Amino acid sequence: MKLGIVGLPNVGKSTLFNSLTKAGAESANYPFCTIDPNVGIVAVPDSRVDHLAEMYHSKKVIPAAIEFVDIAGLVKGASKGEGLGNQFLANIREVDAIVHVVRCFDDSNIVHVDGSVNPLRDIETINFELIFSDIEVLDRRIAKSTRGARNDKALAHEVEFLKEVKAHLEDGKLAKTFVVEDEEDQLILNSCNLLTVKPVIFAANVNEDELAEDGQENDYVAAVRKYAEDVDAKVFVVCAQIEQEIAELDDDEKKEFLEDLGLKESGLEKLIAASYSLLGLISFLTSGEDETRAWTIKKGTKAPQAAGKIHSDFERGFICAEVVSYDDLMENGSMHACKEKGLVRQEGKEYVVKDGDIIVFRFNV
Ligand code: GDP
């Protein structure tokens, strides 16, 4: 999964990106944490992976991973190609979801590019750039399809449909709020790969004293939440500065530090939970002496396709999946005990894999 971090300058993007990638890299010893300064791979914290690895004395532990991309150059005018704007927009096109950092903290020492703190205006500024870029994509597509539309009914319909989408965007609305009734039309829209259909998580960056989970949220956060509801986005409240401090700590210190702040989870954990839920993702597990590994799939994925995540041969030659749930295994202490109780199931092609399934795939080569 690939997440792109966007936001106006000085809202705390780099602070958040650096702390997320550092925390994720350190906690799981991920071998390839930094590909380039703007891309970081973060291990998904999952205690199930650690417990399983212990049980099987696995030589290697490979947690699920999320790739974060710091897309710093999205500023006012980016869509007009000012600076490196277009390149940044192209980067966003490749992510599965957008993490949009909005400034929800007051601090007179840190200049806001537009002179005052106003998260909704900030969101609108970024959205405008994304919408503008989408309109350009549509214009090109409409022009191309129009050339072939004279003798092709389907293309003629496509042009009409895309013009409607464009009018919606020109109203300042996101493509994801455009209601598509027809399946064919949905496919056309998907093929445009617009930026404003991408799932969005707002990272409301607050000050340390506003972070406690039982405390009152500030008005900025409340405004972001209300907006997010309207566009089907998620919100997570974070203090980038605190995350930076957390990233320096080892696991025990971290726990204590979070408790002192009245928090259950770090920002990284909250963000990962929000992303999994927003994108409808779950993890299944494979475990043995060689390695224990978590694999990320979409909810609803069937056994052969889940097997295909590991290797395409597993999918092609799929025979069956031997499945036990993580909870059953932990409760009974060993695979042997689970087998005796009949808790290890043989599942076929139509089996829908569940979160926390531990699976051995049987396949023909
Ligand atoms: P970017 O331009 O969006 O990448 O922003 P930076 O991460 O460079 O942060 C801009 C400034 O805001 C830096 O001086 C940070 O230390 C500061 N900053 C980031 N997060 C917070 C926060 O939660 N509270 C406060 N008071 N300052 C923050």
From TrEMBL:
Sequence ranges assigned to domain OBG-type G in this UniProt record: 1-258
Cofactor section: Mg(2+)
Keywords for the protein's UniProt record, in alphabetical order: ATP-binding, Magnesium, Metal-binding, Nucleotide-binding
Binding site for ATP: N10, V11, G12, K13, S14, T15
Top-rank lineage group of the source organism: Bacteria
GO terms for cellular component: cytoplasm
Pfam family, one: MMR_HSR1
Record-linked PROSITE patterns: G_OBG (PS51710), TGS (PS51880)
Ranges where the TGS domain occurs: 280-363
Single GO MF descriptor: GTP binding
Entry's family note: Belongs to the TRAFAC class OBG-HflX-like GTPase superfamily. OBG GTPase family. YchF/OLA1 subfamily.
UniProt cross-references to PANTHER family, sorted A to Z: OBG GTPASE FAMILY (PTHR23305), OBG-TYPE G DOMAIN-CONTAINING PROTEIN (PTHR23305:SF18)
Function: ATPase that binds to both the 70S ribosome and the 50S ribosomal subunit in a nucleotide-independent manner.
UniProt name for this protein: Ribosome-binding ATPase YchF
Provenance organism: Anaerostipes butyraticus
Gene that specifies this protein: ychF
